[in-house]
Write a structure and sequence with these properties.
5-stranded antiparallel sheet; alpha/beta; 18% strand; 17 strands; 6-stranded parallel sheet; globular
Length: 451
């Protein structure tokens, strides 16, 4: 918490970089009603960050169009992601109380700015979690997550030697944009950052083009999974689950998914949905047996590919727990080291789980001596993939329903955060409805309520 507060102060003192092409630090219309709130005075429900491990559903103002390429979306579906837990825990810096959360959402177009010509009110759309301008060097290559012009945060630029695109609901570190765990959202450059959903793709499928499907596909493709590979995946959450299915789509011979502790039940879920998957519960390993030694027992030399779908926030050993607690590192290197030591010589390791800053005790010797390829997959460039993934949803070659476990109402979003963090109630991926949502599509979960 102290680090987040300090970085807010530092960013304010230094000032943003130049070159922004869209309004930033607008994480809640209530911060400046005259500038950001719809003149009708209409209110909406939204989930806001209120401090470490504290989110609240509040009533705030509906956003208004403030730039010519803005689109206001009436939200019909959102969700919660493992990345949201990093915000919930205060791990991501530059959060401020009252910031509206949520980076994955779909809905119907409510209104459009005068420069928007390709979509109109009433269109069903899904938003990419990143905000791209569509014109810069990266956007021209559809590497939308690295847009140069929608996030001018100076702290991120100094830490990383560059910066990502702006992102919905993901702190002022990524531009300060209000998120989609709400009833309305303002989408800057809406003509670029919204994809129309056809009638044969319900919200319960189309929503996940915003992040999880693109992120999983990017992890598998960018790490180079190919025909005949043996793939090991750390983390059996939605990203790990979809990476397993997509690895088989790319020709993998074997896929081994690793998880354990309170989340061990997810291994059975993944196995039930994709029976070819093999699982490894690290909490069941006998004393003296490590994940690395077990993988090498299962496959001569170890897997060809390792995919990190967990995150660097969760330290297992007491050494990393202490170092993270006192600020000597922001992320644990334990999973990365397991991946490096587990794969075959010249194996490939892809990192998709969120890592924020710096880590200690990194096994660079194994990396160098054995020729291991360590690949930061980056925030997935949604625009590069989402049209092709949409076609896969339409023709049935990709089934996103295998991860969908629950449907809840926005009114219970604060409870959902607690349940999701605890890995409780067999919650895998959720569809969060609003008052604007259609009834559940056939074959999708009915509404769950904890009240």
């Amino acid at each position: 918490m102290a680090v987040s507060q300090v970085t807010n102060i530092v960013e304010k003192a230094m000032g943003h970089l130049e070159g922004a092409v869209t309004e930033q630090d607008m994480t809640n219309p209530d911060r400046d009603r005259e500038k950001y709130a719809d003149p009708s005075g209409e209110k909406m429900k939204a989930l806001v960050w209120n401090g470490k491990n504290d989110v609240q559903l509040v009533e705030t103002y509906k956003p208004k169009l403030i730039e010519d390429r803005d689109v206001i979306v009436k939200i019909t579906g959102s969700t919660i992601c493992g990345s949201d837990l990093h915000l919930y825990h205060g791990t991501i810096v530059e959060l401020q109380k009252g910031d509206i959360l949520g980076h994955e959402f779909c809905g119907k177009v409510d209104s459009v700015g005068p420069a928007v010509k390709n979509i109109k009110p009433g269109d069903r759309v899904v938003a990419s979690f990143q905000i791209a301008c569509g014109e810069c060097m990266y956007c021209q290559k559809k590497l939308s997550s690295q847009c140069e012009r929608t996030n001018t945060n100076k702290v991120e630029n100094i830490m990383y030697g560059g910066r990502t695109a702006g992102m919905f609901g993901y702190s002022h570190f990524t531009g300060g944009f209000a998120g989609g765990q709400a009833e309305y959202a303002r989408v800057p450059y809406g003509d670029v950052n919204l994809l129309k959903l056809p009638d044969d793709v319900p919200d319960e499928k189309g929503l996940y083009l915003s992040d999880v499907l693109s992120t999983s596909w990017n992890c598998v493709v960018d790490t180079g999974v190919k025909d005949g590979d043996v793939v090991a995946i750390w983390g059996a959450g939605p990203i790990g689950q979809m990476c397993a299915a997509m690895s088989f789509m790319r020709g993998a011979k074997r896929v081994i998914v690793i998880d354990g502790g309170p989340a061990a039940w997810r291994l059975d879920l993944v196995k039930s949905k994709t029976p070819k998957v093999e699982t490894l519960n690290y909490t069941d390993l006998p004393k003296g047996t490590s994940i690395t030694s077990k993988l090498k027992e299962m496959e001569h030399g170890g897997p060809d590919v390792a995919l990190e779908c967990a995150a660097g926030e969760y330290a297992k050993g007491w050494g990393h727990q202490i170092e993270m607690a006192v600020g000597l590192e922001t992320d644990t290197s334990e999973i990365i080291n397991e991946m490096i030591t587990s794969v075959k010589n010249y194996g490939r390791c892809g990192v998709t789980g969120v890592y924020v800053g710096f880590t200690n005790h990194f096994n660079i010797g194994s990396l160098m001596e054995r020729g291991i390829r360590l690949i930061g997959n980056g925030q997935a460039p949604v625009h590069l993939y989402w049209q092709d993934l949409l076609k896969m949803l339409q023709d049935g070659s990709l089934d996103s329903s295998i991860m969908l476990s629950h449907r809840v109402d926005l009114d219970e979003m604060d409870t959902l955060y607690k349940k999701f963090e605890a890995r409780a109630d067999d919650i895998q991926k959720v569809f969060v409805q609003t008052k604007f949502s259609d009834p559940p599509a056939p074959g999708t979960p009915e509404l769950t309520s904890w009240r």
